[in-house]
Amino acid sequence: MSADLAPAVAAAAAPLHRALGLTDGELVDIERRLGRGPNDLELAMFSVMWSEHCSYKSSRPLLRTLPTGGDDVVAGPGENAGVMRIGDGWAVAFKIESHNHPSAVEPYQGAATGVGGILRDIFAMGARPIAVLDALRFGDPADPRTRHLVNGVVRGVGGYGNCVGVPTVGGELVFDPSYQGNPLVNVMAIGLVREDAIVRAAAPGPGNLVILYGSATGRDGIGGASVLASATFGAQDPSKRPAVQVGDPFAEKLLIEATLEILAAGLAEGLSDLGAAGITCGVSETADRAGTGIRVDLDAIPRREPGMAPFEVMISESQERMVVIARPDRLPQIAAICERWGIPCGVIGRVTDDGDVAVIEGGLAPDGMPNPGARELARIPARALASEAIVFDRLAAPPPRRRRAPAPGIPETAADMLPEGGTDPGAVLLGLLGSPNLASRAWVAEQYDRDVGTNTVGSAGHGAAVLRVKGTRRALVATTDGNEAVSALDPYLGAALSVAEASRNVSVTGARPLGVTNCLNFGDPTRPESFWQLREAVRGMGDACRALGLPVTGGNVSLYNEAPGSAIAPTPEIGIVGLLDDVALLVGPAFAADGDVALLAGAGGPGLGGSAYAAVAGLAAEDDLPGLDLAAEAAVQAFVRDAIAARHVTAAQDVSGGGLAVALAEMAIWGGRGGQFRVPVPSAPAVALFGESPSRIVLTVRPPDLAAVRALAGRHGVKIAELGTVGGPRLVIEMFGEGATGAAEGRGSSIADALEVTLADLRHAWDHGLPRALGEEA
Amino acid sequence: MSVRVGVVVFPGSNCDTDTAWALARAGAEPVQLWHESADLLGVDAIVLPGGFAYGDYLRAGAIARFSPVMRAVAGYAADGGLVLGICNGFQVLAEAGLLPGALLRNRTLRFVCRDVAIRAERADTAFTHRVPGGGVLRMPVAHGEGCYYADAATLDALERDGRILFRYVDAAGSPAPAGDRANPNGSLRAIAGVINAAGNVAGLMPHPERAADALLGSDDGMLVLRSLVDSAGERAGMIQHAVAG
Amino acid sequence: MNAEVIAARFRFAVNVLPKDGILDPQGRAVEQSLPHLGLAGVGEVRVGRRVELAVDAPDAAAARVVVDELARELLCNPLIEQYAIEPLGAISAARSGAGG
């Protein structure tokens, strides 16, 4: 339930609409839409549909600026999920959604129901879900509360995804102090559907039946609206208290199978899942999209609890429920399929032609009209609840220039940043590899079933997730990325970098990025600074998507992620799906063979701001942000895809968190072999080794292919530097160039120390970093 | 005419499609056996696939074993038919008493999904005759309740009678004790799979159907599935000879 | 100083069930499978867990306070579960101390 529903404090004293989270201005607008004052049930329905979570009232004007079109876009924003065609008659459905606030309250169920909800969005399009990725963000990993949240959320994601039989194949795990009071749980799901079998969330055809199937309706998720309960019933009745949403993955598995059978038999005119705002949302959105109305038979809705009030039934967020719109003569077949899978189903309404959502108590006759003596409890134009919900133009104002006062002696500029006095850069590398944000995620990933479906290719945690498409030579590649560190300093740049990094992660496998889904996690939009961050992030995301030719097919906005005095770092979580036409051409990120030549494609630049190194080294590098040249980003990605397609590349990895040294270390660990490398240092060793300037890729090629690769890079206008040779039990990085001399004078040396670490040490640091940070080491 | 292998589908089974696909690669014709029906459709062997039958609610396999299909499977097994339980399928067979022992929660109390190495302890069974003697197979596990347990007397009897079919082994090829990373769930005596005394019913926690394609990392699982398919074919052939007189 | 300490050990069970109104997937799955066992007339199945423990305390009331706190803090998730404490009796009384 959205967090902007005000707590039900002193319900008797506050006007009802305010207790439900509606402003006085919103009430006036409601009265204008209805031409009268709303009754309590109508007020409850407006309060959930006009909540930030359902209506996107603060963000819709911004989201309209995003690029959403493309030749291969089959369904875009506004549908349950975005869909893009991939060839051979197939299309891929994908979307990312948040379940942040429920996960802070009850981490297991919050995460579990987050997975359930996003899966429903996928199979509501007619697509069989084939993968989940989870992007999780928490505060200090040493804090007991963080550990409690991490454990609960990971168990919840696994508990739901594993049971429902969809592999969890990737995601992120990021720790940052700004998430301490507001963890983020963003879940992305992907599904496959035949392009001609896609079903829409519309309710066409007056006279058609509205059929609800799935679990019974209880009081799940009725949060702030419970003030209505105390207004109607005794405030002390414990069974009327709001209920945490509990997920049932077994029920969802049955729901998936039944739904896909119903669709395969061509029985559905329209389909929608029930998520936030429950039945109210399901009927108003489908009616609105078809330009029809829906008459709801309240009595026909199966309840889990006795004595539920009408508003509870209409806004309940009980899980694992779907609504299908069908012609009356299809009912027996739909009922038979539901019966076979052991799922309750019933007719709960009729499509009408009056454009309204009408709620009837007392039953509908066989012809769909209200029984004699039945009461009409509510009547609201569907579009007032859905596409024409209230929209705000919020105030945006950038924050005043605010610099964190650096501790005395802490360097502020990019001159030699390596810690002084003989510190071994290898030790810095091990420190980074073992830091919670860069270390191996195996502790989390092994709690997820990543193999069910027998489509998952490649090793866990080694780059983007790859899913082969059975019956074709193709494969889908998926990743999530979100740069909160730079976004906190420059939200436009942070969002653009996030799009660049996510698409680069896809391109280094050889796959072509297809489209973007995004989850925008921000603070309170009524705070001008926070809204400015959102506006800038959307602008940055839009510019990057346009420059890289990526349509935005849909997504989610989660606002109000803050407590008094502490807002999260603005977090634009970008999910990208890519297409590899021939899975045999897939390239992984592990060093493949001794003797391979390692190359760095793309020119590096200065800037340690927002980097993992700056965080670990305690640098105040706010003014030192990296630059992003979107044309160069597009070029380096196109180059590596072409090089892979020409079979010249044996391994490829993008340079991101921890910079070039970490990228080489990862390739070495995963490939079980080291290398001898030389890196030019124009300005400072730390920048060359650990700087995170974008648009760079490490690739390895067999020596005979070197000339061809150089020529290809030249044709793409991409700079290539030869790094060295793969092989041996150590990772050795020597430095040369202007910045490598004199910079280490304090260490009595005229050339910066080489970085030299054994493979065993690299692997040890990487393997143990996360369990150690979470206190999970044996 | 190919060997027909039944794949039982309970509500909540989620590896049935994968199992059917892998059996087809092993040369069999997979046949879905819906839990509500006691008609085994004349199949030549039966596989109980992985997943979360009935959500694994109450205990993994506890509810599934009362379904109509399981009564038929028990009869089929009593008559000597070949039955293989994979992961959740193994749990169902143990709950149904068709295999000894029980599968408890993993020692770490966490779900575990990763590749393991298992050794076939016998090469003379219907399920392992294609595995080279002492052969080590790589395949994934994915379970929260895979810790094999039986009391000491039963374990001794299993060892004595050669009813331990697979064990988890470490890099040196030795059985991996509980606490060793090579034993993913803490199973006693490193037991990854068992077989009944008559040799026609077996269960294992790792997933051979997920190691049926080199693209996915290993095709060692095909050795187990092909063994099953071949054995089923032989038995079907024998029955036909008998009918022909 | 010679002291006599009288302590007793009190056994309790804490029975945890899903709260009223909370979805109980396990209970529902068990209930729906009962027809397979040919059983009719069985319903309202709820599945929880039972924790048994023993507490050293001067008296039963003091012991119960300890159990209550343990139940609330650890054994039960108050968001989605409720608990009931079942006394199982005292199992021993011990007197310790030097001389008397």
Number of separate structural domains of chain C: 1
Strand order of the largest sheet of chain C: 2-1-3
- Supply the number of helical segments of chain B: 5
CATH architecture of chain C: 2-Layer Sandwich
User: What is the 3D shape of chain B?
Assistant: globular
Classify the beta-strand content of chain C into a percent band: 35-45%
- N-to-C terminal Cα separation of chain B, in Å? 20 Å
The major β-sheet of chain B equals: 9 strands, mixed
Order of helices and strands of chain C: EHEHE
- CATH homologous group name of chain B: Class I glutamine amidotransferase (GATase) domain
Cα-atom radius of gyration of chain B: 17 Å
Order of helices and strands of chain B: EHEEHEHEEEEHEEEH
Radius of gyration of chain C: 20 Å
The CATH class of chain C? Alpha Beta
Number of helices, counting only DSSP H or I runs of 4 residues or more of chain C: 2
Task: Give descriptors for this structure.
heterotrimer, A: 778 residues, alpha+beta, 60s Ribosomal Protein L30, Chain: A, Phosphoribosyl-aminoimidazole Synthetase, Chain A, domain 2, 3 domains, seven-stranded mixed beta sheet, 25 helices, 33% helix, elongated, disordered N terminus, B: 245 residues, alpha/beta, two-stranded antiparallel sheet, 25% helix, globular
What is the element layout, followed by pairings?
The complex is a heterotrimer of chains A (778), B (245) and C (100).
Chain A: H1 16-19, H2 24-34, H3 40-49, H4 52-55, H5 60-63, E1 73-75, E2 82-87, E3 90-98, H6 100-105, H7 107-123, E4 128-138, H8 144-164, E5 168-175, E6 184-194, E7 209-214, H9 226-232, H10 249-264, E8 270-273, H11 278-290, E9 293-297, H12 310-315, E10 321-326, H13 331-340, E11 345-352, E12 356-361, E13 375-381, H14 382-385, H15 425-433, H16 442-445, E14 456-457, E15 465-468, E16 475-481, H17 484-489, H18 491-507, E17 512-521, H19 528-548, E18 552-558, E19 562-563, E20 566-567, E21 571-580, E22 597-601, H20 612-617, H21 630-645, E23 649-654, H22 659-671, E24 675-680, H23 685-690, E25 697-701, H24 706-716, E26 720-726, E27 730-736, E28 755-758, H25 759-773
Parallel strand pairs in A: 4-5, 9-12, 17-18, 24-27
Antiparallel strand pairs in A: 1-2, 2-3, 3-6, 4-6, 7-10, 7-11, 8-10, 9-11, 12-13, 14-15, 15-16, 16-21, 17-21, 19-20, 22-25, 22-26, 23-25, 24-26, 27-28
Chain B: E1 4-9, H1 16-25, E2 29-34, E3 45-48, H2 68-78, E4 83-86, H3 88-95, E5 102-104, E6 112-120, E7 136-143, E8 147-149, H4 152-160, E9 164-168, E10 191-195, E11 201-204, H5 221-244
Parallel strand pairs in B: 1-2, 1-3, 3-4, 4-11
Antiparallel strand pairs in B: 5-8, 6-7, 6-9, 9-10, 10-11
Chain C: E1 5-18, H1 25-33, E2 49-57, H2 60-75, E3 81-96
Antiparallel strand pairs in C: 1-2, 1-3
